[in-house]
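Risk mitigation, structural track. In case the binding assays with GN1 fail to produce interpretable data, a predicted complex structure has been prepared as a fallback.
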Amino acid sequence: MVYPRILQMTTYVALLVVFLGHISCSEIENRSVSDSCSTHTILPGPKGDVGEKGDPGEFGKQGKEGPMGSKGNKSQVGNSGDNGLLGKIGPIGAKGDKGYKGTPGLPGGKGKTGSFCDCGRYRKFVGQLDNNVARLKSSLMFVKNVIAGIRETDEKFYYIVKEERNYRDALTQCRIRGGTLAMPKDQATNSLISDYISKTGLFRVFIGINDIEKEKQYMYTDNTPLQNFSSWKAGEPNDGSGYEDCVEMQSTGDWNDVECNLTIYFMCEFSKKAK
Ligand code: GN1
Ligand code: CA
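Fallback model:
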Protein backbone atom coordinates (compact mmCIF):
# COMPACT_ATOMS: atom_id res chain seq x y z
CA MET A 1 0.00 0.00 0.00
CA VAL A 2 2.97 2.33 0.69
CA TYR A 3 4.78 1.68 -2.61
CA PRO A 4 1.97 2.63 -4.99
CA ARG A 5 1.58 5.86 -3.05
CA ILE A 6 5.32 6.59 -3.42
CA LEU A 7 5.10 5.90 -7.18
CA GLN A 8 2.18 8.23 -7.42
CA MET A 9 4.14 10.99 -5.64
CA THR A 10 7.14 10.43 -7.92
CA THR A 11 4.92 10.91 -10.97
CA TYR A 12 3.65 14.20 -9.54
CA VAL A 13 7.23 15.42 -9.06
CA ALA A 14 8.15 14.55 -12.64
CA LEU A 15 5.18 16.40 -14.04
CA LEU A 16 6.03 19.37 -11.82
CA VAL A 17 9.58 19.45 -13.26
CA VAL A 18 8.20 19.43 -16.81
CA PHE A 19 5.80 22.24 -15.95
CA LEU A 20 8.53 24.29 -14.34
CA GLY A 21 10.65 23.66 -17.36
CA HIS A 22 8.03 25.17 -19.63
CA ILE A 23 7.62 28.15 -17.30
CA SER A 24 11.32 28.87 -17.26
CA CYS A 25 11.59 28.59 -20.99
CA SER A 26 8.75 30.97 -21.56
CA GLU A 27 10.36 33.42 -19.20
CA ILE A 28 13.64 33.00 -20.98
CA GLU A 29 11.93 33.50 -24.36
CA ASN A 30 10.20 36.56 -23.00
CA ARG A 31 13.59 37.88 -21.94
CA SER A 32 15.19 36.61 -25.20
CA VAL A 33 18.34 35.69 -23.39
CA SER A 34 18.90 32.17 -24.64
CA ASP A 35 17.43 29.73 -27.17
CA SER A 36 18.40 26.66 -25.31
CA CYS A 37 14.79 26.15 -24.16
CA SER A 38 13.46 26.07 -27.62
CA THR A 39 16.17 23.77 -28.78
CA HIS A 40 16.36 21.22 -25.84
CA THR A 41 13.56 18.88 -24.90
CA ILE A 42 13.50 18.26 -21.12
CA LEU A 43 12.88 14.53 -20.42
CA PRO A 44 11.80 13.06 -17.10
CA GLY A 45 14.57 11.78 -14.99
CA PRO A 46 14.89 8.19 -13.87
CA LYS A 47 12.52 6.83 -11.20
CA GLY A 48 13.73 7.64 -7.74
CA ASP A 49 14.44 5.13 -5.02
CA VAL A 50 11.75 3.91 -2.79
CA GLY A 51 11.31 6.38 0.07
CA GLU A 52 11.72 5.51 3.70
CA LYS A 53 8.89 3.85 5.48
CA GLY A 54 6.60 6.49 7.06
CA ASP A 55 6.07 6.93 10.78
CA PRO A 56 3.09 5.10 12.36
CA GLY A 57 -0.11 7.15 12.26
CA GLU A 58 -1.84 8.50 15.34
CA PHE A 59 -4.38 6.38 17.22
CA GLY A 60 -7.69 6.31 15.40
CA LYS A 61 -10.96 7.53 17.10
CA GLN A 62 -12.98 5.06 19.21
CA GLY A 63 -15.41 3.17 17.00
CA LYS A 64 -19.21 3.22 17.53
CA GLU A 65 -20.86 0.79 19.95
CA GLY A 66 -21.48 -2.48 18.13
CA PRO A 67 -24.88 -4.29 18.00
CA MET A 68 -25.93 -6.59 20.88
CA GLY A 69 -24.21 -9.94 20.73
CA SER A 70 -26.21 -13.16 20.32
CA LYS A 71 -27.40 -15.11 23.43
CA GLY A 72 -24.63 -17.10 25.06
CA ASN A 73 -24.73 -20.87 25.48
CA LYS A 74 -26.41 -22.42 28.57
CA SER A 75 -23.92 -22.68 31.43
CA GLN A 76 -23.25 -25.69 33.68
CA VAL A 77 -25.67 -26.79 36.43
CA GLY A 78 -25.03 -24.75 39.64
CA ASN A 79 -24.05 -26.28 43.03
CA SER A 80 -26.76 -27.59 45.42
CA GLY A 81 -28.35 -24.90 47.67
CA ASP A 82 -28.37 -25.04 51.54
CA ASN A 83 -30.91 -27.28 53.32
CA GLY A 84 -34.40 -25.66 53.67
CA LEU A 85 -36.14 -25.06 57.08
CA LEU A 86 -37.99 -27.95 58.77
CA GLY A 87 -41.60 -28.15 57.44
CA LYS A 88 -44.78 -28.00 59.64
CA ILE A 89 -46.10 -31.19 61.33
CA GLY A 90 -48.59 -32.94 59.03
CA PRO A 91 -52.13 -34.16 60.06
CA ILE A 92 -52.58 -37.34 62.13
CA GLY A 93 -52.47 -40.35 59.87
CA ALA A 94 -55.19 -43.03 59.62
CA LYS A 95 -55.25 -45.80 62.23
CA GLY A 96 -53.02 -48.65 61.26
CA ASP A 97 -54.20 -52.22 60.72
CA LYS A 98 -54.36 -54.60 63.67
CA GLY A 99 -51.11 -56.42 64.22
CA TYR A 100 -50.67 -60.18 64.04
CA LYS A 101 -51.38 -62.21 67.15
CA GLY A 102 -48.30 -62.63 69.29
CA THR A 103 -46.75 -65.95 70.08
CA PRO A 104 -48.07 -67.72 73.22
CA GLY A 105 -46.18 -66.99 76.43
CA LEU A 106 -44.30 -69.56 78.41
CA PRO A 107 -46.42 -71.74 80.73
CA GLY A 108 -46.63 -70.56 84.32
CA GLY A 109 -45.10 -72.38 87.24
CA LYS A 110 -46.93 -75.19 88.95
CA GLY A 111 -49.41 -74.00 91.57
CA LYS A 112 -49.40 -74.94 95.24
CA THR A 113 -51.24 -78.01 96.42
CA GLY A 114 -54.89 -77.13 97.07
CA SER A 115 -56.69 -77.78 100.34
CA PHE A 116 -59.75 -79.97 100.69
CA CYS A 117 -63.05 -78.07 100.39
CA ASP A 118 -65.75 -79.16 102.81
CA CYS A 119 -68.46 -77.66 100.60
CA GLY A 120 -71.28 -79.28 102.44
CA ARG A 121 -70.30 -77.53 105.67
CA TYR A 122 -70.07 -74.15 103.91
CA ARG A 123 -73.45 -74.60 102.26
CA LYS A 124 -74.99 -75.43 105.60
CA PHE A 125 -73.35 -72.38 107.20
CA VAL A 126 -74.58 -70.08 104.41
CA GLY A 127 -78.07 -71.52 104.75
CA GLN A 128 -78.02 -70.78 108.49
CA LEU A 129 -76.89 -67.20 107.76
CA ASP A 130 -79.81 -66.75 105.34
CA ASN A 131 -82.21 -67.93 108.02
CA ASN A 132 -80.74 -65.56 110.59
CA VAL A 133 -80.97 -62.60 108.21
CA ALA A 134 -84.63 -63.40 107.50
CA ARG A 135 -85.40 -63.60 111.24
CA LEU A 136 -83.59 -60.30 111.85
CA LYS A 137 -85.60 -58.63 109.06
CA SER A 138 -88.80 -59.92 110.57
CA SER A 139 -87.83 -58.70 114.02
CA LEU A 140 -86.83 -55.30 112.63
CA MET A 141 -90.15 -55.00 110.81
CA PHE A 142 -91.98 -55.74 114.11
CA VAL A 143 -89.97 -53.12 115.97
CA LYS A 144 -90.43 -50.51 113.23
CA ASN A 145 -94.08 -51.06 112.51
CA VAL A 146 -95.51 -52.23 115.85
CA ILE A 147 -93.26 -50.89 118.58
CA ALA A 148 -91.97 -47.72 116.93
CA GLY A 149 -94.83 -47.41 114.53
CA ILE A 150 -92.91 -45.94 111.62
CA ARG A 151 -93.42 -46.12 107.85
CA GLU A 152 -90.86 -46.03 105.06
CA THR A 153 -90.24 -45.66 101.34
CA ASP A 154 -87.03 -46.57 99.50
CA GLU A 155 -85.60 -43.19 100.40
CA LYS A 156 -87.20 -42.10 103.71
CA PHE A 157 -88.61 -43.09 107.09
CA TYR A 158 -91.76 -41.40 108.42
CA TYR A 159 -92.63 -41.17 112.08
CA ILE A 160 -95.64 -39.63 113.89
CA VAL A 161 -94.63 -37.96 117.13
CA LYS A 162 -97.56 -38.19 119.50
CA GLU A 163 -96.76 -35.01 121.35
CA GLU A 164 -98.90 -31.93 120.92
CA ARG A 165 -96.70 -29.08 119.67
CA ASN A 166 -97.20 -25.85 117.76
CA TYR A 167 -95.66 -25.75 114.27
CA ARG A 168 -92.28 -24.27 115.23
CA ASP A 169 -91.75 -26.62 118.16
CA ALA A 170 -92.85 -29.59 116.08
CA LEU A 171 -90.26 -28.65 113.42
CA THR A 172 -87.61 -28.29 116.11
CA GLN A 173 -88.43 -31.73 117.53
CA CYS A 174 -88.07 -33.36 114.13
CA ARG A 175 -84.73 -31.61 113.57
CA ILE A 176 -83.45 -32.68 116.99
CA ARG A 177 -84.12 -36.28 115.91
CA GLY A 178 -82.12 -35.74 112.71
CA GLY A 179 -85.01 -35.09 110.32
CA THR A 180 -87.64 -32.47 109.44
CA LEU A 181 -91.44 -32.23 109.22
CA ALA A 182 -92.82 -34.57 106.54
CA MET A 183 -92.88 -33.09 103.03
CA PRO A 184 -95.28 -34.98 100.74
CA LYS A 185 -94.15 -34.10 97.20
CA ASP A 186 -96.09 -36.73 95.25
CA GLN A 187 -99.31 -38.71 95.55
CA ALA A 188 -97.63 -41.96 96.66
CA THR A 189 -95.92 -40.29 99.61
CA ASN A 190 -99.10 -38.37 100.46
CA SER A 191 -101.09 -41.62 100.54
CA LEU A 192 -98.48 -43.37 102.70
CA ILE A 193 -98.60 -40.53 105.25
CA SER A 194 -102.41 -40.30 105.31
CA ASP A 195 -102.68 -44.08 105.71
CA TYR A 196 -100.24 -43.85 108.60
CA ILE A 197 -102.40 -41.14 110.25
CA SER A 198 -105.63 -43.08 109.86
CA LYS A 199 -104.13 -46.44 110.97
CA THR A 200 -102.79 -44.72 114.07
CA GLY A 201 -106.33 -43.65 114.88
CA LEU A 202 -105.56 -39.93 114.49
CA PHE A 203 -107.35 -37.20 112.55
CA ARG A 204 -104.70 -34.54 111.87
CA VAL A 205 -100.94 -33.87 112.11
CA PHE A 206 -98.67 -31.00 111.17
CA ILE A 207 -96.68 -31.50 107.96
CA GLY A 208 -93.78 -29.40 106.72
CA ILE A 209 -95.56 -26.77 104.56
CA ASN A 210 -96.27 -23.08 105.36
CA ASP A 211 -96.68 -19.59 103.91
CA ILE A 212 -95.12 -17.78 106.87
CA GLU A 213 -92.65 -15.83 104.70
CA LYS A 214 -95.15 -14.64 102.09
CA GLU A 215 -98.95 -15.02 102.12
CA LYS A 216 -100.26 -17.60 99.59
CA GLN A 217 -96.70 -18.61 98.67
CA TYR A 218 -96.46 -22.05 100.24
CA MET A 219 -93.01 -23.51 100.84
CA TYR A 220 -91.70 -26.85 102.14
CA THR A 221 -89.45 -26.77 105.20
CA ASP A 222 -86.45 -27.40 102.92
CA ASN A 223 -87.21 -23.95 101.41
CA THR A 224 -88.50 -25.33 98.10
CA PRO A 225 -91.88 -24.14 96.76
CA LEU A 226 -94.84 -26.41 95.98
CA GLN A 227 -94.32 -27.57 92.44
CA ASN A 228 -96.38 -30.07 90.46
CA PHE A 229 -98.24 -31.56 93.41
CA SER A 230 -100.67 -30.41 96.15
CA SER A 231 -103.52 -32.03 98.04
CA TRP A 232 -105.61 -29.13 99.34
CA LYS A 233 -109.01 -29.93 100.81
CA ALA A 234 -111.88 -28.31 98.90
CA GLY A 235 -112.08 -24.64 99.87
CA GLU A 236 -108.57 -24.62 101.34
CA PRO A 237 -106.30 -22.87 101.89
CA ASN A 238 -108.72 -20.19 103.10
CA ASP A 239 -106.69 -18.43 105.77
CA GLY A 240 -109.85 -18.74 107.87
CA SER A 241 -108.80 -16.74 110.92
CA GLY A 242 -106.48 -14.50 108.98
CA TYR A 243 -103.52 -16.19 110.68
CA GLU A 244 -103.55 -19.63 109.08
CA ASP A 245 -100.00 -19.88 107.74
CA CYS A 246 -99.17 -23.51 108.60
CA VAL A 247 -100.49 -26.76 107.11
CA GLU A 248 -101.97 -29.92 108.56
CA MET A 249 -102.72 -33.23 106.84
CA GLN A 250 -105.96 -34.94 107.76
CA SER A 251 -106.48 -38.72 107.77
CA THR A 252 -108.16 -38.43 104.36
CA GLY A 253 -104.91 -37.10 102.86
CA ASP A 254 -106.35 -33.59 102.46
CA TRP A 255 -104.38 -30.49 103.40
CA ASN A 256 -105.79 -27.54 105.39
CA ASP A 257 -104.15 -24.30 106.45
CA VAL A 258 -104.35 -23.69 110.18
CA GLU A 259 -102.81 -21.28 112.67
CA CYS A 260 -99.16 -22.10 113.44
CA ASN A 261 -99.79 -21.78 117.22
CA LEU A 262 -102.25 -24.69 117.10
CA THR A 263 -100.83 -27.57 119.17
CA ILE A 264 -101.29 -31.00 117.54
CA TYR A 265 -99.28 -34.15 116.83
CA PHE A 266 -96.81 -33.96 113.96
CA MET A 267 -95.14 -36.17 111.35
CA CYS A 268 -91.35 -36.23 110.94
CA GLU A 269 -89.39 -37.64 108.00
CA PHE A 270 -85.79 -38.95 107.97
CA SER A 271 -83.59 -39.51 104.93
CA LYS A 272 -82.03 -42.96 104.49
CA LYS A 273 -79.04 -41.46 102.64
CA ALA A 274 -75.86 -41.28 104.66
CA LYS A 275 -75.01 -37.65 105.39
C1 GN1 B 1 -111.87 -24.75 110.74
O1 GN1 B 1 -113.48 -24.05 113.15
P1 GN1 B 1 -113.62 -23.18 111.94
O2 GN1 B 1 -114.75 -23.54 111.09
O3 GN1 B 1 -113.58 -21.72 112.33
C2 GN1 B 1 -110.39 -24.79 110.47
C3 GN1 B 1 -110.05 -23.94 109.31
C4 GN1 B 1 -110.81 -24.44 108.10
C5 GN1 B 1 -112.29 -24.44 108.38
C6 GN1 B 1 -113.07 -25.06 107.23
C7 GN1 B 1 -108.40 -24.67 113.66
O4 GN1 B 1 -112.23 -23.45 111.06
O5 GN1 B 1 -108.68 -24.01 109.02
O6 GN1 B 1 -110.52 -23.69 106.98
O7 GN1 B 1 -112.57 -25.18 109.56
N1 GN1 B 1 -109.64 -24.34 111.63
C8 GN1 B 1 -109.17 -25.25 112.53
O8 GN1 B 1 -114.39 -24.97 107.43
O9 GN1 B 1 -109.30 -26.43 112.39
CA1 CA C 1 -108.05 -23.37 106.65
